[in-house]
Amino acid sequence: MGAQPSNSGWSTSKAVPASQAFPEENILSSWKDIAGYLGKSVRTVQRYEQELGLPVRRPRGSRYIVFAYPSELNKWLTMSSARLQTR
């Protein structure tokens, strides 16, 4: 699930401001930061978003600005690993 826009800025799907949803977590605020966190290239993480549902968020109306929360990436990695092991 991506960020849902609200009148006051970015928020999670439950309309909680992002700053309250992840209050103590550092935000990865670029493709380069996200790629570095995952140990992959920028192009690879962009492909992961398109093909595998990597949880990357965008502000309303932006195709180019991205951000991600490490906890969501960790959860996605865990779920992706579990899916691959059940095949």
Task: Report on this structure.
The chain has a domain at 31-87. Helices cover 45% and strands 7% of the residues. A hairpin with a 2-residue loop joins strand 1 (4-6) and strand 2. The protein has helices at 18-21, 31-38, 42-52, 70-85; strands spanning 4-6, 9-11. A two-stranded antiparallel sheet has the order 1-2. The protein contains 4 helices and 2 strands; from the N terminus they run E-E-H-H-H-H. Mean pLDDT is 79; it is low at 1-16. With 87 residues, it is mostly helical.
Question: How would you summarize this macromolecular structure in one to three sentences?
Answer:
By secondary structure, the protein is mainly α. It has helices at residues 18-21, 31-38, 42-52, 70-85; strands at residues 4-6, 9-11.
Helix and strand arrangement:
Layout: E1 4-6, E2 9-11, H1 18-21, H2 31-38, H3 42-52, H4 70-85
Antiparallel strand pairs: 1-2
| Helicity, as a percent range | 40-55%
Summarize the biggest pleated sheet.
2 strands, antiparallel
The order of strands across the largest sheet is 1-2
- What value does the Rg take, in angstroms? 13 Å
Question: How much is the average pLDDT?
Answer: 79
From the spread of the alpha carbons, the general shape counts as globular
Low-confidence stretches: 1-16
Oligomer: single chain
Distinct helical segment count = 4
- SSE succession: EEHHHH
Class by SSE composition: mainly alpha
Share of β-strand residues: 5-15%
Q: What is the terminal-to-terminal distance? A: 24 Å
The total strand number stands at 2
